[in-house]
Amino acid sequence: MARLRSRRSQPVEPERLYDEIAPDYAEHVERHAKFNSAIDELIAKDVADGSSVADIGTGTGLRAAQLKRRRPGVRVTGFDISNEMLRRAMPSLDGGIRASLPNLPVRDNSFDHALCLYNTFGYLRTYDARVKALKDMARILKPGGRLYIDVVNRTNMGEQGEYKRGALTRRLLSAIPAYGFSKPGDLKFTMNVKGKQFTGDTHAFTLKELNHLFKKSGLTVVHKQVIGYTSGKPQTDPNRGQFFFVLEKA
Asked: Rounded to an integer, what distance in angstroms lies between the CA atom of residue 133 and that of residue 103?
């Protein structure tokens, strides 16, 4: 995930953005290593050896590599819109497919589990695309399969309250679009990599919004957690971190 801002500028298309940052992507992701590691550990504890896993938005395969390190018997197929990301991910994958949500070119009931991490879901720009993406991820899961997903929390105050968002501000963030956008939660992100600055569109979610989307997908929430974006530690206050969910297909 990247630094979020609400002021509008011309965004870079996702494919071009990730092709350009692929050589330095690992360094960018390392900034939130504790957050990512905490989620990777939760997933590894839940996934059985020998499972087939779809890593959707695999990037350079960093999360796939971590899962295979913790669970050497899993088989991971990576999906990404960026050719350059996918090329770099291949050593960590058992297969790679250039594709993006909500159109995954695989058969129904293909995977035991699916990953959609580091706010990949937030890069879908419309409500309809998010519903279709969840349904598509549900489609490729076998019965009983699980989807592991993390997203940006729209009302995250930071673990120490460093974002200084009071109750009124959080209510406004939940209900009112940012400047230059038509829908609440739509934002521009700014990513600084090796002295280069990239911008793009993303979406930050509320719990109410996510629960509504998940119901549309037909998937059932079996676990949810707020995790500190800096420390990687579980948070009891829903406004002190980012959201992580485990969803299951009936």
From this structure: 7
Residue 83 lies in a domain: yes
* pLDDT reported for residue 198: 77
| Listed residue (165, 156, 149) closest to 211, CA to CA | 149
CA distance 233 to 241: 9
* d(C-alpha 188, C-alpha 180), whole Å: 10
Q: What is the pTM of this model?
A: 0.89
Tokens of 69: 């390190």
CATH value at residue 149: 3.40.50.150
Residue 207 maps to a domain: yes
Within-domain flag for 178: no
Q: Which amino acid is at 133?
A: A
Domain that holds residue 80: 10-154+203-248
Q: Which residue's structure tokens are 């159109």?
A: 103
Region of 218 (left: φ > 0; alpha: ψ -120 to 50; beta: rest) is: left
Asked whether residue 88 is assigned to any structural domain, the reply reads: yes
Quick one: pLDDT band at residue 5, thresholds 50, 70, 90? Answer: very low
